[in-house]
Amino acid sequence: MPIGKNVYGRLFNVVGDPIDGLEVLPKTKSDGMSIHREAPAFDQLSTSTEVLFTGIKVIDLIEPYAKVERLVYLEELV
Q: Which of 46, 56, 70, 78 has a CA positioned 20 to 30 A from the CA of residue 9?
């Protein structure tokens, strides 16, 4: 699978072949990563919760309001 800044904004299938009609990127050891590699160790996985910013301003703006509305609605029921 190609890696690096060249893949930003590109579309690839599951084996790393571009499906967007642009140039084919190299999949060598220095410019790519194998899809058949060992899974990370359990202690290397992250369990922290983070806010996901989509980069779409409308979605990032509306989502906190949806959470607040649910909390207000639940408080009225109690």
A: 46
